[in-house]
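User: Could you check the structure of this?
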Amino acid sequence: MLTGVGLRGEVLWGGDSRGWAGVGGGLENGGMGLSVGWSGPVTGDAPVGVLVGGALAKGAARLQRAVRMVEKDEDDAIHQVRVSCRRLRSNLKLFKKVLAGGWSAELRAELAGLALACGEARDLEVIAALVQETAGGEDDAAQVELISGTLRAGLADAASRANTVVTSDETAALLIRLQQTAAAPELKPRADERCADVLPELLAGAVGVFTQEADKLQPWTPDDDWHEVRLLAKRARYAAKTCAAVLGAEAEATAVQAAKYQELLGQHQDHCAAADALVALLPAAEPPLAFTLGRLVERHRAARKPLREEFLTLYHRS
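Assistant: Sure, the predicted C-alpha coordinates are below.
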Protein backbone atom coordinates (compact mmCIF):
# COMPACT_ATOMS: atom_id res chain seq x y z
CA MET A 1 0.00 0.00 0.00
CA LEU A 2 1.23 3.47 -0.82
CA THR A 3 1.86 5.12 2.53
CA GLY A 4 3.19 8.47 1.40
CA VAL A 5 5.88 10.13 -0.65
CA GLY A 6 8.45 12.63 0.57
CA LEU A 7 10.32 15.18 -1.47
CA ARG A 8 13.00 12.66 -2.36
CA GLY A 9 10.44 9.95 -3.17
CA GLU A 10 10.60 8.08 0.14
CA VAL A 11 7.56 6.45 1.71
CA LEU A 12 5.93 8.52 4.45
CA TRP A 13 2.18 8.46 5.00
CA GLY A 14 -0.04 5.93 6.57
CA GLY A 15 -3.43 5.42 5.04
CA ASP A 16 -5.33 6.64 8.12
CA SER A 17 -8.27 9.01 7.91
CA ARG A 18 -7.97 12.31 9.72
CA GLY A 19 -10.98 14.56 9.99
CA TRP A 20 -10.97 18.09 8.67
CA ALA A 21 -12.68 20.09 11.37
CA GLY A 22 -14.57 22.49 9.16
CA VAL A 23 -13.19 23.89 5.98
CA GLY A 24 -11.95 27.25 7.19
CA GLY A 25 -11.26 30.59 5.47
CA GLY A 26 -14.17 31.65 3.35
CA LEU A 27 -16.28 28.47 3.48
CA GLU A 28 -18.54 29.51 6.31
CA ASN A 29 -21.60 28.68 4.20
CA GLY A 30 -20.74 24.98 4.45
CA GLY A 31 -21.13 24.50 0.71
CA MET A 32 -18.23 22.08 0.39
CA GLY A 33 -19.26 18.72 -0.96
CA LEU A 34 -22.99 19.38 -1.36
CA SER A 35 -22.79 18.45 -5.03
CA VAL A 36 -21.28 15.05 -4.25
CA GLY A 37 -23.60 14.05 -1.40
CA TRP A 38 -21.20 14.20 1.53
CA SER A 39 -21.75 15.99 4.82
CA GLY A 40 -19.53 16.41 7.84
CA PRO A 41 -15.73 16.55 8.13
CA VAL A 42 -13.61 15.46 5.18
CA THR A 43 -11.82 12.26 6.16
CA GLY A 44 -9.86 9.65 4.28
CA ASP A 45 -13.16 7.87 3.59
CA ALA A 46 -14.70 10.90 1.88
CA PRO A 47 -14.89 10.94 -1.92
CA VAL A 48 -12.01 12.96 -3.32
CA GLY A 49 -14.56 15.11 -5.14
CA VAL A 50 -15.52 16.58 -1.76
CA LEU A 51 -11.98 17.85 -1.29
CA VAL A 52 -11.92 19.21 -4.86
CA GLY A 53 -14.98 21.35 -4.23
CA GLY A 54 -13.71 22.46 -0.85
CA ALA A 55 -10.27 23.40 -2.13
CA LEU A 56 -11.77 25.42 -4.98
CA ALA A 57 -14.22 27.19 -2.67
CA LYS A 58 -11.50 28.00 -0.20
CA GLY A 59 -9.24 29.25 -2.99
CA ALA A 60 -12.01 31.41 -4.46
CA ALA A 61 -12.65 32.94 -1.02
CA ARG A 62 -8.94 33.60 -0.57
CA LEU A 63 -8.76 35.32 -3.95
CA GLN A 64 -11.84 37.39 -3.19
CA ARG A 65 -10.28 38.60 0.05
CA ALA A 66 -7.12 39.55 -1.82
CA VAL A 67 -9.11 41.49 -4.41
CA ARG A 68 -10.81 43.39 -1.60
CA MET A 69 -7.39 44.20 -0.17
CA VAL A 70 -6.48 45.79 -3.50
CA GLU A 71 -9.72 47.75 -3.54
CA LYS A 72 -8.88 49.09 -0.07
CA ASP A 73 -5.26 49.83 -1.09
CA GLU A 74 -3.89 47.61 1.68
CA ASP A 75 -0.24 46.61 1.95
CA ASP A 76 0.88 43.47 0.12
CA ALA A 77 -2.48 43.25 -1.68
CA ILE A 78 -1.17 42.69 -5.22
CA HIS A 79 1.13 39.96 -3.94
CA GLN A 80 -1.76 38.21 -2.19
CA VAL A 81 -3.77 38.21 -5.43
CA ARG A 82 -0.84 36.60 -7.21
CA VAL A 83 -0.39 33.97 -4.48
CA SER A 84 -4.12 33.19 -4.48
CA CYS A 85 -4.08 32.64 -8.23
CA ARG A 86 -1.07 30.36 -7.99
CA ARG A 87 -2.61 28.25 -5.23
CA LEU A 88 -5.82 27.81 -7.21
CA ARG A 89 -3.88 26.87 -10.32
CA SER A 90 -1.81 24.41 -8.30
CA ASN A 91 -4.95 22.70 -6.98
CA LEU A 92 -6.44 22.48 -10.45
CA LYS A 93 -3.20 20.84 -11.56
CA LEU A 94 -3.17 18.52 -8.54
CA PHE A 95 -6.72 17.28 -9.17
CA LYS A 96 -6.40 17.11 -12.96
CA LYS A 97 -6.94 13.33 -13.06
CA VAL A 98 -10.38 13.62 -11.47
CA LEU A 99 -11.62 16.73 -13.32
CA ALA A 100 -13.86 16.26 -16.37
CA GLY A 101 -14.22 18.55 -19.38
CA GLY A 102 -12.17 21.59 -20.33
CA TRP A 103 -13.29 23.95 -17.59
CA SER A 104 -10.16 23.49 -15.47
CA ALA A 105 -7.83 24.44 -18.33
CA GLU A 106 -9.91 27.54 -18.99
CA LEU A 107 -9.83 28.58 -15.34
CA ARG A 108 -6.10 27.94 -15.10
CA ALA A 109 -5.53 30.16 -18.14
CA GLU A 110 -7.62 32.98 -16.67
CA LEU A 111 -5.88 32.70 -13.32
CA ALA A 112 -2.50 32.72 -15.05
CA GLY A 113 -3.45 35.93 -16.83
CA LEU A 114 -4.47 37.59 -13.57
CA ALA A 115 -1.29 36.46 -11.83
CA LEU A 116 0.79 37.72 -14.74
CA ALA A 117 -0.89 41.13 -14.52
CA CYS A 118 0.26 41.30 -10.88
CA GLY A 119 3.72 39.88 -11.53
CA GLU A 120 5.58 42.96 -12.75
CA ALA A 121 4.56 45.07 -9.76
CA ARG A 122 5.50 42.38 -7.26
CA ASP A 123 8.82 41.65 -8.97
CA LEU A 124 9.80 45.32 -9.09
CA GLU A 125 8.88 45.72 -5.43
CA VAL A 126 11.22 42.88 -4.48
CA ILE A 127 13.96 44.02 -6.86
CA ALA A 128 13.91 47.65 -5.66
CA ALA A 129 14.27 46.55 -2.04
CA LEU A 130 17.00 44.03 -2.86
CA VAL A 131 19.04 46.54 -4.88
CA GLN A 132 18.92 49.01 -2.00
CA GLU A 133 20.00 46.26 0.37
CA THR A 134 22.86 45.14 -1.88
CA ALA A 135 24.31 48.62 -2.39
CA GLY A 136 27.30 49.37 -0.17
CA GLY A 137 29.20 52.33 1.18
CA GLU A 138 31.67 52.11 -1.69
CA ASP A 139 28.91 52.83 -4.23
CA ASP A 140 28.04 56.35 -5.34
CA ALA A 141 24.99 57.17 -3.21
CA ALA A 142 23.52 59.52 -5.83
CA GLN A 143 23.77 56.87 -8.53
CA VAL A 144 22.22 54.24 -6.27
CA GLU A 145 19.35 56.59 -5.49
CA LEU A 146 18.85 57.27 -9.21
CA ILE A 147 18.67 53.52 -9.87
CA SER A 148 16.28 52.98 -6.97
CA GLY A 149 14.13 55.89 -8.11
CA THR A 150 13.88 54.44 -11.61
CA LEU A 151 12.81 51.09 -10.20
CA ARG A 152 10.27 52.71 -7.87
CA ALA A 153 8.78 54.69 -10.76
CA GLY A 154 8.42 51.47 -12.73
CA LEU A 155 6.84 49.87 -9.68
CA ALA A 156 4.24 52.65 -9.36
CA ASP A 157 3.27 52.29 -13.02
CA ALA A 158 3.11 48.50 -12.80
CA ALA A 159 1.05 48.64 -9.61
CA SER A 160 -1.43 50.98 -11.28
CA ARG A 161 -1.82 48.61 -14.23
CA ALA A 162 -2.23 45.63 -11.90
CA ASN A 163 -4.84 47.49 -9.85
CA THR A 164 -6.85 48.16 -12.98
CA VAL A 165 -6.88 44.49 -13.93
CA VAL A 166 -7.61 43.19 -10.41
CA THR A 167 -10.58 45.51 -9.90
CA SER A 168 -12.00 44.98 -13.40
CA ASP A 169 -15.34 43.45 -14.35
CA GLU A 170 -13.43 40.53 -15.85
CA THR A 171 -11.92 39.64 -12.48
CA ALA A 172 -15.31 39.97 -10.80
CA ALA A 173 -16.73 37.56 -13.38
CA LEU A 174 -13.85 35.16 -12.77
CA LEU A 175 -14.64 35.13 -9.05
CA ILE A 176 -18.27 34.28 -9.78
CA ARG A 177 -17.24 31.42 -12.08
CA LEU A 178 -14.88 30.08 -9.44
CA GLN A 179 -17.61 30.10 -6.80
CA GLN A 180 -20.11 28.45 -9.12
CA THR A 181 -17.60 25.82 -10.20
CA ALA A 182 -16.64 25.04 -6.60
CA ALA A 183 -20.31 24.42 -5.75
CA ALA A 184 -20.72 21.82 -8.53
CA PRO A 185 -17.45 20.93 -10.31
CA GLU A 186 -17.67 18.62 -13.31
CA LEU A 187 -15.80 15.51 -12.22
CA LYS A 188 -14.79 12.12 -13.54
CA PRO A 189 -16.11 8.91 -11.97
CA ARG A 190 -12.83 8.52 -10.10
CA ALA A 191 -13.82 11.52 -7.97
CA ASP A 192 -16.09 9.09 -6.07
CA GLU A 193 -13.06 7.14 -4.79
CA ARG A 194 -11.82 7.60 -1.23
CA CYS A 195 -9.43 10.46 -0.47
CA ALA A 196 -7.14 8.01 1.33
CA ASP A 197 -6.80 5.97 -1.87
CA VAL A 198 -6.40 8.82 -4.36
CA LEU A 199 -4.54 11.66 -2.64
CA PRO A 200 -1.23 9.84 -2.04
CA GLU A 201 -1.00 9.14 -5.77
CA LEU A 202 -1.87 12.71 -6.73
CA LEU A 203 0.61 14.22 -4.30
CA ALA A 204 3.29 11.73 -5.32
CA GLY A 205 2.85 13.01 -8.88
CA ALA A 206 3.47 16.63 -7.88
CA VAL A 207 6.45 15.68 -5.73
CA GLY A 208 7.83 13.38 -8.42
CA VAL A 209 7.89 16.12 -11.05
CA PHE A 210 9.81 18.33 -8.63
CA THR A 211 12.39 15.67 -7.75
CA GLN A 212 12.86 14.69 -11.39
CA GLU A 213 13.94 18.23 -12.25
CA ALA A 214 15.73 18.99 -8.98
CA ASP A 215 17.91 15.91 -9.46
CA LYS A 216 19.30 17.53 -12.63
CA LEU A 217 20.47 20.73 -10.97
CA GLN A 218 24.21 21.42 -10.85
CA PRO A 219 26.08 24.55 -9.73
CA TRP A 220 26.50 25.54 -13.38
CA THR A 221 22.90 24.86 -14.46
CA PRO A 222 21.32 27.88 -16.28
CA ASP A 223 19.21 30.32 -14.27
CA ASP A 224 16.01 29.39 -16.10
CA ASP A 225 16.29 25.77 -14.98
CA TRP A 226 16.73 26.82 -11.37
CA HIS A 227 13.68 29.05 -11.73
CA GLU A 228 11.62 26.15 -13.10
CA VAL A 229 12.55 23.97 -10.12
CA ARG A 230 11.49 26.81 -7.81
CA LEU A 231 8.05 26.81 -9.42
CA LEU A 232 7.83 23.03 -9.05
CA ALA A 233 8.81 23.25 -5.38
CA LYS A 234 6.05 25.78 -4.85
CA ARG A 235 3.55 23.53 -6.62
CA ALA A 236 4.61 20.56 -4.47
CA ARG A 237 4.23 22.68 -1.35
CA TYR A 238 0.73 23.83 -2.27
CA ALA A 239 -0.27 20.29 -3.19
CA ALA A 240 1.02 18.95 0.13
CA LYS A 241 -0.84 21.67 2.06
CA THR A 242 -4.09 20.74 0.32
CA CYS A 243 -3.60 17.02 0.91
CA ALA A 244 -2.54 17.54 4.53
CA ALA A 245 -6.14 18.44 5.33
CA VAL A 246 -6.85 14.70 5.01
CA LEU A 247 -3.48 12.91 5.06
CA GLY A 248 -2.26 14.64 8.17
CA ALA A 249 1.10 15.42 9.72
CA GLU A 250 3.35 13.63 7.25
CA ALA A 251 1.90 15.53 4.30
CA GLU A 252 2.31 18.72 6.31
CA ALA A 253 5.97 17.77 6.82
CA THR A 254 6.35 17.44 3.06
CA ALA A 255 4.93 20.96 2.71
CA VAL A 256 7.40 22.28 5.28
CA GLN A 257 10.34 20.68 3.46
CA ALA A 258 9.14 22.05 0.13
CA ALA A 259 8.90 25.50 1.72
CA LYS A 260 12.58 25.30 2.72
CA TYR A 261 13.53 24.51 -0.87
CA GLN A 262 11.24 27.23 -2.16
CA GLU A 263 12.78 29.84 0.16
CA LEU A 264 16.31 29.21 -1.08
CA LEU A 265 15.26 29.00 -4.70
CA GLY A 266 13.18 32.15 -4.26
CA GLN A 267 16.19 34.10 -2.98
CA HIS A 268 18.16 32.79 -5.94
CA GLN A 269 15.46 33.94 -8.36
CA ASP A 270 15.28 37.38 -6.73
CA HIS A 271 18.98 37.94 -7.40
CA CYS A 272 18.61 36.70 -10.98
CA ALA A 273 15.67 39.05 -11.56
CA ALA A 274 17.51 41.98 -9.97
CA ALA A 275 20.54 41.42 -12.19
CA ASP A 276 18.32 41.24 -15.29
CA ALA A 277 16.45 44.42 -14.32
CA LEU A 278 19.69 46.32 -13.81
CA VAL A 279 21.15 45.08 -17.09
CA ALA A 280 18.03 46.42 -18.83
CA LEU A 281 18.93 49.91 -17.56
CA LEU A 282 22.44 49.82 -19.01
CA PRO A 283 21.76 50.88 -22.64
CA ALA A 284 20.41 54.29 -21.59
CA ALA A 285 22.93 54.88 -18.78
CA GLU A 286 25.74 57.44 -18.83
CA PRO A 287 29.20 56.06 -17.93
CA PRO A 288 29.10 56.87 -14.17
CA LEU A 289 25.68 55.29 -13.81
CA ALA A 290 26.70 52.35 -16.00
CA PHE A 291 29.66 51.72 -13.70
CA THR A 292 27.43 51.54 -10.63
CA LEU A 293 24.93 49.35 -12.46
CA GLY A 294 27.71 46.99 -13.45
CA ARG A 295 28.94 46.66 -9.87
CA LEU A 296 25.45 45.90 -8.62
CA VAL A 297 24.82 43.38 -11.39
CA GLU A 298 27.98 41.50 -10.49
CA ARG A 299 26.99 41.37 -6.81
CA HIS A 300 23.59 39.92 -7.61
CA ARG A 301 25.13 37.36 -9.94
CA ALA A 302 27.73 36.42 -7.34
CA ALA A 303 24.97 35.91 -4.77
CA ARG A 304 23.67 32.95 -6.77
CA LYS A 305 26.64 30.68 -6.01
CA PRO A 306 26.23 30.27 -2.21
CA LEU A 307 22.46 29.88 -2.59
CA ARG A 308 22.91 27.12 -5.16
CA GLU A 309 25.40 25.36 -2.92
CA GLU A 310 23.09 25.66 0.09
CA PHE A 311 20.14 24.28 -1.85
CA LEU A 312 22.08 21.34 -3.28
CA THR A 313 23.46 20.47 0.16
CA LEU A 314 20.00 20.58 1.73
CA TYR A 315 18.35 18.72 -1.12
CA HIS A 316 20.80 15.83 -1.28
CA ARG A 317 20.93 15.55 2.51
CA SER A 318 17.14 15.30 2.85
